[in-house]
Amino acid sequence: MTSPAAAPSVEPRVRRFGRLNLEVRQSIPRWQHALYVILSIVAGIAISAAILLVAGVNLGGMYEEFILLTFFDRLGLSSVLIESSPLILVGLSAAMAFRVNYWNIGIEGQFFWGAIGATFISIYDIGPPGLRLYIMFALACAGGFGWALVPAFLKVRLNVNEVISTLLFSYIAFQVVLNQVYGPWQDPHERFPHSIKFDPVEQLPKIGWEKVHLGLFVGVALVAVMWWLVERSRFGAYARLVGSNARMALAAGVPVALIVFLSAGLSGALSGAAGFVMAAGQEFRLTATMAAGYAFSGIVIAFLARNHPLGVLVVAILIGGLYTAGQSIKGFYGVPEALVQLLQAVIVLCVAASQFFVSYRLRLARE
Fold it and tell me: How many Cβ atoms from other residues are within 10 Å of residue 328's Cβ?
């Protein structure tokens, strides 16, 4: 007998709903870009509120105390603007270097040399009193410019990694500051590690709104200058070419080494200007802690602003508001400094993550 034919096997039917494809966006409307940033800020605030709730903080009145009173109150907004003044300059510093793919991590060292230059003029009373602030500003920019040129030279001539060299130069600058504030420039009356207080003619004048000083206008003016430089000058066009493709720029006759060298020096000068604003507008002396955290802040601001000067201005003010609100939370609710830094990091990371949705699009591909 012949055996019956085997019954055909029936495979289980699988329903495929599709897959997610990651696509690079060619362009994005400005309103959509702004929407992603706003949603990321809301997400960051929501996560921060959840963390505070778990930590036992009463969230009642948080919106009124730390949003309205930070950005929509005269005293709170003045504190934000004071905090933002050096942030604008360090953000510009990072942006100018990053535009040519020069990774200046030594912003704090250049910041210190700006403060050292301003303090030098103050201690030794160089120049007439009416011109003292201008001389302090010029020497501060020159100090940051000169300190940034050495790693830039090592980069363009010997191909030394600028991340390492600029970072190590920051440690050297910090040691110089320690030597001065514990040594010849130490205040003989207080015996704390800082220099003597600047004379009134060596302090940036107040503009008449709480404690807001002219350092804010220095930052805004330099934003305008940097915008013209990168958007309207030949140097800015060359920098864009170097940043997009250095080899192609070199083949087109662009002096790549010179553009990188000058961009690094300009970045250092802006950091030195930030040191001047901090020394003459807020601290009124040289201290060993005045530059702490400004390298990280400058890098974050430049990244979120996509290295654009006008974007730096907006982001620096928002970051200044974030720092001001953090200090208010610490003061009103007694939360530890580590928790405040965690909340700030959560919001910054959420905003940084929004760049993913700006650059890429998730599309469902059906099968």
Answer: 17
CA 132 to CA 128: how far, in whole Å?
A: 6
Place of tokens 């510093």: 93
Q: How many CB atoms lie within 10 A of CB 325?
A: 25
Angstrom distances, CA of residue 199 to CA of 119, 133, 244: 11, 11, 47
- How many C-alpha atoms does 165 have within 13 Å on its Cβ side? 18
pTM for the model: 0.89
Question: Phi and psi dihedrals of 362, rounded to 5?
Answer: -95, 125
Average pLDDT, the chain: 88
pLDDT in tens, 219-246: 999 999 999 999 999 999 999 999 999 9
Burial per residue of 187-219, b for 16 or more beta-carbon CB atoms within 10 angstroms, e otherwise: eeeeeebbbbebeeebbbeeeeeeebbbbbebb
**Residue at token pair 């004379």:** 199
Q: 268 to each of 101, 160, 174, how far by Cα in Å?
A: 15, 18, 15
Q: CA-CA distances (angstroms) from residue 30 to 33, 36, 37, 186?
A: 5, 10, 11, 52
Task: Name all domains of the chain by residue range, CATH numbers in brackets.
Answer: 28-55+335-367 (no CATH), 78-320 (1.10.3470)
